């Protein structure tokens, strides 16, 4: 199979994996949002930073180190497995005993048992990091898509049943634990690699040399991405945090998941051609242009439809989330661009530079944090929007030195998609403003109108990024025999 075919297959199955998993979770979250109150979502939001930081420690950057290494042995995999398992147990114990202090910090007694129980996901998740890494190295997401569907559906049923029975916040706890448990059980059962307890200090030292810098970078990034939950929970209220978490979930569904799809596929693909500069730059530019065409159109369209979208899906009681969501869309749409620029730095083996960048960017973000505490949540999100543009420039300033793809070239490549998406979003917002129909009908009309405009304008202008995506999908849908004939003709 050619690199292009592997990339397209990887993107397709990674998309299916993410769309199924996150799609089902999103549907479940809509149902839960109607059964639960904002405060209960806010309680979970308060402790996300502690779970996320612990998960970053358990991973420790080993997954990226294993993917980048050209030839991984059973010893390498076993060493990382043992470390992950031990780290998972250690951090579960740490969270268990830190729970009373976390509860006192937020002045929420209910948080203590929640933290102690939710910490179990660290042990469960550590059992299958190697299986996921091996499948990613092989650009094989088909099995992960199947497991994701089963885990998301099973955990969703558990959570909805518990919420229906009046168990409140514990339905959210059960959803996360059951999803990780189901995911782990099926990955262990269906993957060929089986864990062993062999540990090599030589292998650990080699992998940790690269992974340790990514670990620190991930910790800094994870803290930054979740510190807003902590600040809102501490200085505002669980209810306000609940509104913010719903807005952030709507924002993350397309932006972070699109970024995750691109990162999972682009990293092993770019690693495989890291010694071919011409091919590397060509593939890298194609990833950026295609992903940003999708990101700009989705995020701006959602911002334009924010009010009918949120009110229709989760109800009037979440109206306060609308303005938060609209602002967050303008930070989320650039996230795939950050991921791809940072991918190049990892591909080139510069985890030290990756760490340096994260430190600089997070220092520059401190004023945003202060702004949020002093002037409120909207001011904080506005500061995040400014930081997003600064981060883009800093990430590119280093990656361009490695492959010769400058900041101006990236702007030139993505500007047509950005301009088109902005025009369409303004048109869709205007249509919603003049309609006198209910929220559900308005949402349907805006969605159809927006999607139609994307296709019509892209076809009329022959936008290259749209044409590439359309042709890629068309080729993928071809019968295999016809595809071979076409490929032979192209040669």
Strand content: under 5%
Largest sheet: none
Q: Give the rounded overall mean pLDDT.
A: 82
Task: Tell me the number of helical segments per DSSP (H or I, 4 or more residues long).
Answer: 22
What are the secondary-structure elements, in order, as H or E? HHHHHHHHHHHHHHHHHHHHHH
Poorly predicted segments: 479-491
Question: Could you tell me how far the N terminus lies from the C terminus, measured between alpha carbons in angstroms?
Answer: 15 Å
Q: How would you sum up the global shape?
A: globular
Helix content: over 70%
Cα gyration radius (Å): 23 Å
Helix-and-strand structural type: mainly alpha
> Tally of extended strands?
0
Describe the structure.
- The protein is mainly alpha-helical.
- The chain has a domain at 1-239.
- It has 22 helices and no strands.
- It has helices spanning 3-35, 38-59, 62-68, 74-106, 111-118, 120-126, 129-137, 142-164, 169-190, 201-235, 238-272, 277-304, 306-314, 321-332, 335-347, 351-364, 366-375, 377-403, 407-434, 439-461, 464-477, 480-490.
- Helix 4 (74-106) runs antiparallel to helix 5 (111-118) and helix 17 (366-375) runs antiparallel to helix 18.
- It is globular, with a radius of gyration of 23 Å.
Notable traits:
491 residues, mainly alpha, single chain, disordered C terminus
């Amino acid at each position: 199979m050619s690199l292009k075919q592997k990339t397209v297959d990887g993107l397709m199955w990674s998309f299916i994996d993410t769309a199924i998993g996150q799609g089902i979770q999103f549907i479940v979250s809509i149902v839960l949002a109607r059964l639960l109150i904002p405060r209960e979502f806010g309680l979970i939001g308060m402790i996300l930073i502690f779970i996320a930081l612990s998960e970053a420690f358990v991973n420790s950057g080993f997954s990226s180190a294993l993917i980048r290494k050209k030839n991984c042995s059973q010893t390498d995999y076993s060493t990382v497995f043992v470390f992950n398992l031990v780290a998972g147990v250690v951090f579960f114990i740490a969270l268990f005993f830190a729970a009373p202090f976390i509860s006192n910090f937020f002045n929420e007694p209910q948080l203590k048992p929640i933290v102690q129980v939710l910490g179990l996901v660290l042990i469960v998740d550590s059992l299958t990091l190697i299986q996921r890494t091996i499948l990613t190295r092989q650009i094989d997401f088909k099995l992960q898509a199947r497991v994701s569907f089963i885990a998301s559906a099973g955990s969703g049923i558990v959570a909805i049943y518990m919420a229906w029975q009046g168990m409140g916040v514990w339905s959210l706890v059960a959803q996360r634990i059951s999803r990780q448990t189901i995911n782990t059980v099926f990955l262990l059962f269906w993957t060929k690699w089986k864990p062993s307890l062999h540990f090599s200090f030589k292998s650990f030292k080699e992998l940790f040399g690269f992974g340790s810098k990514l670990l620190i970078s991930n910790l800094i990034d994870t803290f930054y991405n979740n510190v807003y939950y902590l600040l809102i929970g501490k200085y505002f209220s669980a209810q306000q945090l609940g509104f913010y978490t719903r807005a952030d979930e709507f924002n993350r569904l397309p932006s972070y998941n699109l970024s995750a799809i691109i990162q999972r596929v682009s990293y092993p693909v770019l690693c495989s051609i890291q010694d071919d500069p011409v091919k590397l730059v060509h593939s890298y530019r194609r990833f950026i242009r295609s992903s940003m065409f999708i990101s700009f159109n989705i995020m701006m369209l959602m911002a334009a439809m924010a009010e009918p979208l949120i009110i229709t899906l989760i109800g009037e009681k979440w109206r306060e989330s609308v303005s938060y969501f609209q602002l967050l869309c303008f930070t989320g749409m650039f996230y795939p661009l950050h991921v791809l620029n940072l991918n190049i730095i990892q591909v080139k083996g510069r985890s030290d530079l990756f760490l340096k960048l994260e430190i600089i960017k997070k220092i520059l973000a401190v004023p945003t944090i202060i702004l949020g505490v002093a002037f409120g949540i909207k001011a904080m999100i506005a500061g995040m929007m400014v930081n997003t543009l600064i981060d883009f420039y800093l990430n590119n300033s280093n990656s361009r030195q490695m492959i010769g793809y400058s900041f101006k070239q990236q702007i030139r490549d993505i500007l047509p998609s950005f301009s088109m998406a902005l025009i369409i979003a303004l048109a869709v917002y205007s249509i919603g403003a003049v309609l006198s129909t209910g929220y559900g009908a308005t949402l349907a009309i805006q969605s159809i109108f927006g999607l139609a405009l994307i296709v019509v304008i892209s076809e009329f202008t022959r936008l290259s990024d749209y044409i590439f995506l359309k042709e890629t999908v068309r080729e993928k849908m071809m019968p295999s025999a016809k595809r071979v004939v076409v490929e032979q003709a192209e040669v």
